[in-house]
Write a sequence for this structure.
């Protein structure tokens, strides 16, 4: 596609999304209060996705590896915290779990990554698939496969706010607000880390070119351990937040799959992109399920909704056709 | 000593090009086929057929399809199970809505429909590669999953969402006993493997491999990338569709939409990684592995007197899969097929050391 | 050795400008290539020689300028269109298909002309079979010509560099190109290998009448085998003529000796 055509497609897609966003309100399909609830709900789940996507972006940024196992790491970390918290205070369990994730990072670098330096992206993807399966099985072997709870001490009952503004008020979750705040802090910390610290700069060099970075003396192996440990920590935070909200169970692992569309939208190498992508997917999904779903069910006589199972992926696919590098990612040029 | 090519000179290109150029290989294949078609039906137990050999053969067909796309053409697909679903549901709808059709025709049509859908989802592959393409195929997987679960027409408005096709009838022969099912599936597998081999060694297969190895160079020598990639998607999905129809009709008997979920797609990917990418034999090895391992894990502890729960068995299975995938990717990316080839090389020298 | 008569203009490059981001790879380059001739493109490293070849056969699309081939003018085309029109190409960095044997690599050059469809291929009957054998016979001629019979079933990755270069040439020849673009075909070779390769290039030009455009660093080879030479430096053309004319050109000498400009 010529550059001009691509821009039109991007604009068209953006318009479509904007219509989807504003539609329900403008068409009076729902009460304003409900609309805001759905929006907030979408934003909240978007924040959750962003947390998982952050881990992806970190690892991809620093090692060019697409870590399919991020979801399994979230699950593993959550399981670790949940089970250890049964016999010790949550804070202690959290710290121990962070240590566990660091050890995991070291093991992954040692046993897997080191041997696959400079391999094809697809090979690395499949290796992380292998790690996923292994972690899933291993985690459940050690920690068990029931559903476990994580008690963070935050109030679970939803608050009713803005009663004056909207009829009947809006229900929001304190937990979700705290999650959003934590995510924001994490992003800030990571952004600073990458821009301001020597290690962060080294990470960016490695992401650009493994061999070149090695040749100027950057210790590749140590860098990778650090990155995977940080990603592990992000996974831990995500795991605790998701786990306390939904309970720690196997399906957490599948959430990683959802984070794929997030990084597609945001760009594989962009931390702000992961956030924005997450928000777009979160809101888009919720809106599709709540507003688009019933419409489709009526039109096509469907047996129930479930749009959110595929909406994120189809959205990502459309983005890929129109803007493959995502909103904030970098263009890739093939040289011969 | 036994396995040498001594004296086997080829005096024509045709002879050089045949599928099994070495005489010993031809004898072996003939013996294998005779064993499979003539001997097995008499010595195999029902359990063997239903739990082991039939799933093995059907998965091998699907694995061949995926191998064509991933191993030969270098694309990626995390959504093969979706195309299997398309084949299964297409076959089901054809059988109940057009009952006069011969099942063999139904099978081919189901494959063609799956192939068409495959082409559709393959169109993005010109612009997007690698990881991005993986996401596109995931989109296919989840969308198709959802479609068959929600669009009631596909399940013939079944209340529970599951379908239950009638037994297969071909030219008056009802395929109902395990032996019948085995022979039918075996026949389909042999034919489809032969076709795949022919495709792969012809110009279309060379085009696929060229795209895989270096797509810019492939374009420079005149291969049209879109056409080549789409043909890979089409053929791959055709195989998946046929396998899906067989899976639903013969292996499962009755199924719900989740029977063709993303786990099956991932399992197929594992089959070709472990078995060997870019190798038809590897597809068979991988399928055998995936079928045998869980059974082994379930039975073996009992032999050693250490019974383990099914939950633990499935966790161990996941761990072993994961570890093996990593192992093969690091140590032998060409999988069991390469190990087999190395073994054959050694056999050529036996009993001499080199 | 009798050389073919050089004919009319076959290819002409007209005012081509190419840049990547801020880097100007080609700046207003124009030259022509006549039928049956051997045209060399020379110049110091980074002069834009490979980029020029890439523009000619469609791998890069220039921002400005036109390429006319056999009278048909266009700004940009896709590489496979170029192949269909008769452009053959070898690569500096050996873009061979590492997963395939020598025979398969060269056979892939015939893909342009192999037309049987999926179904016939799958069944390998009649037309498909005959087509495969016909093209195999043709490719075997190329294999004979390049003297690589012993290696036809070897995976190309296992061959020494010099032989891989021959396979690259063989693959391009299999396309029966009207014009052959060779990107440093002698790079990394020793004297003997260079002599062999020069002989092949001359034979191709002689026996098949293929027009050849080649990039080469070895001045001895260039002076020996080419009819005319184009000299590029920093993306601009600084010389164009017979080898002798170019050799005397002060700008060319300066460029190679590194005089500041």
């Amino acid at each position: 596609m010529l550059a001009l055509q691509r821009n039109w497609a991007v604009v068209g897609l953006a318009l479509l999304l904007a219509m989807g966003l504003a539609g329900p309100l403008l068409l009076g399909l729902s009460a304003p209060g409900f609309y805001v609830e759905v929006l907030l709900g979408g934003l909240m789940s978007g924040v959750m996705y962003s947390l998982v996507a952050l881990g992806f972006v970190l690892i991809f940024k620093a090692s060019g590896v697409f870590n399919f196992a991020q979801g399994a790491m979230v699950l593993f970390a959550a399981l670790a915290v949940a089970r250890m918290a049964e016999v010790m205070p949550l804070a202690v369990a959290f710290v121990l779990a962070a240590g566990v994730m660091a050890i995991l990072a070291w093991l992954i670098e040692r046993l897997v990554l080191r041997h696959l330096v400079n391999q094809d992206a697809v090979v690395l993807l499949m290796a992380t698939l292998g790690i996923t399966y292994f972690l899933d099985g291993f985690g459940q072997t050690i920690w068990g496969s029931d559903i476990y709870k994580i008690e963070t001490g935050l109030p679970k009952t939803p608050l009713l706010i803005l009663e004056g503004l909207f009829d009947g008020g809006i229900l929001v979750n304190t937990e979700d607000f705290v999650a959003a705040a934590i995510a924001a802090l994490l992003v800030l910390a990571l952004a600073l880390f990458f821009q301001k610290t020597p290690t962060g700069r080294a990470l960016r060099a490695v992401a650009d070119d493994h061999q070149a970075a090695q040749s100027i003396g950057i210790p590749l192996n140590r860098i990778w351990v650090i990155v995977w440990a940080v990603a592990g920590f992000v996974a831990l935070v995500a795991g605790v937040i998701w786990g306390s909200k939904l309970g720690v169970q196997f399906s957490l692992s599948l959430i990683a799959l959802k984070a794929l569309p997030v990084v597609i939208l945001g760009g594989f190498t962009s931390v702000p992109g992961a956030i924005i992508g997450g928000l777009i997917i979160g809101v888009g999904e919720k809106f599709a399920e709540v507003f688009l779903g019933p419409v489709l069910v009526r039109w096509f006589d469907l047996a129930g909704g479930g749009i959110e199972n595929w909406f994120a992926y189809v959205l990502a696919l459309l983005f890929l056709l129109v803007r493959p590098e995502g909103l904030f990612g970098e263009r890739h040029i093939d040289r011969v | 000593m036994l396995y040498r090519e001594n004296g086997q000179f080829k005096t024509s290109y045709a002879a050089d090009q045949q599928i099994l150029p070495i005489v010993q290989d031809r004898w072996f294949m003939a013996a294998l086929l005779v064993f499979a078609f003539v001997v097995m039906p008499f010595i195999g137990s029902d359990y063997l057929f239903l739990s082991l050999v039939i799933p093995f053969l059907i998965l091998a067909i699907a694995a061949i399809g995926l191998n064509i796309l991933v191993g030969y053409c270098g694309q990626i697909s995390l959504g093969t199970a979706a195309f299997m679903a398309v084949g299964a549901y297409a076959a089901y709808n054809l059988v109940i809505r057009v009952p006069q059709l011969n099942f063999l025709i139904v099978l081919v049509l189901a494959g063609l429909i799956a192939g068409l859908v495959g082409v559709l989802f393959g169109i993005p592959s010109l612009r997007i590669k690698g990881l991005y393409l993986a996401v596109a195929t995931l989109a296919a997987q989840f969308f198709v999953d959802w479609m068959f679960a929600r669009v009631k027409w596909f399940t013939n408005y079944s209340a529970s969402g599951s379908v239950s096709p009638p037994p297969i009838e071909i030219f008056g022969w009802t395929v109902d006993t395990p032996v019948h099912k085995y022979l039918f599936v075996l026949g389909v597998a042999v034919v489809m493997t032969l076709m795949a081999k022919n495709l792969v060694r012809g110009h279309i297969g060379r085009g696929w491999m060229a795209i895989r190895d270096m797509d810019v160079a492939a374009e420079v020598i005149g291969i049209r990338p879109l056409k080549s990639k789409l043909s890979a998607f089409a053929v791959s999905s055709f195989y998946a569709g046929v396998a899906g129809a067989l899976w639903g009709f013969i292996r499962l008997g009755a199924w719900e939409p989740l029977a063709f979920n993303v786990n099956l797609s991932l399992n197929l990917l594992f089959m070709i990684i472990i078995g060997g990418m870019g190798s038809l034999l590897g597809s068979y090895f991988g399928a055998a592995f995936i079928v045998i391992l869980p059974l082994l894990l379930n039975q073996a502890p009992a032999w050693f007197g250490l019974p383990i729960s099914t939950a633990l068995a499935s966790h161990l299975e996941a761990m072993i899969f994961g570890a093996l995938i990593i192992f093969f990717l690091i140590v032998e990316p060409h999988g069991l097929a390469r190990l087999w080839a190395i073994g054959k090389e050694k056999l050529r020298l036996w009993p001499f050391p080199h | 050795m009798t050389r073919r008569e050089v004919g009319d203009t076959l290819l002409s490059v007209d005012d081509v400008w190419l840049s990547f981001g801020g880097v100007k790879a080609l700046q207003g380059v124009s030259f022509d290539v006549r039928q049956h001739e051997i045209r060399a493109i020379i110049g110091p490293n980074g002069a834009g020689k490979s980029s020029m070849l890439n523009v000619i056969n469609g791998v890069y699309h220039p921002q400005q300028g036109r390429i006319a081939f056999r009278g048909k003018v266009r700004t940009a085309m896709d590489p496979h269109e170029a192949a269909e029109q008769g452009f053959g190409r070898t690569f500096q960095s050996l873009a061979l298909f590492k997963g395939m044997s020598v025979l398969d690599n060269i056979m892939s050059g015939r893909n342009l002309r192999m037309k049987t469809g999926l179904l016939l291929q799958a069944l390998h009957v009649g037309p498909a079979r005959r087509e495969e054998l016909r093209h195999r016979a043709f490719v075997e001629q190329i294999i004979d010509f390049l003297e690589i019979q012993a290696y036809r079933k070897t995976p190309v990755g296992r061959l020494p560099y010099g032989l891989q270069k021959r396979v690259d040439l063989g693959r391009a020849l299999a396309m029966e190109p009207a014009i052959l673009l060779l990107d440093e075909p002698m790079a990394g070779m020793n004297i003997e290998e260079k002599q062999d390769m020069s002989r092949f290039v001359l034979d191709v030009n002689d026996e098949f009448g293929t027009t050849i455009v080649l990039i080469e660093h070895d001045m001895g080879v260039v002076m020996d085998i080419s009819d005319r030479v184009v000299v590029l430096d920093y993306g601009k053309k600084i010389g164009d003529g017979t080898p002798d004319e170019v050799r005397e050109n002060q700008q060319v000498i300066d460029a190679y000796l590194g005089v500041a400009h």
Observations:
- DSSP finds twelve helices and two strands in chain A.
- Residues 32-63 of chain A form the longest helix (32 residues).
- Residues 32-322 of chain A form one domain.
- The radius of gyration of chain A is 21 Å.
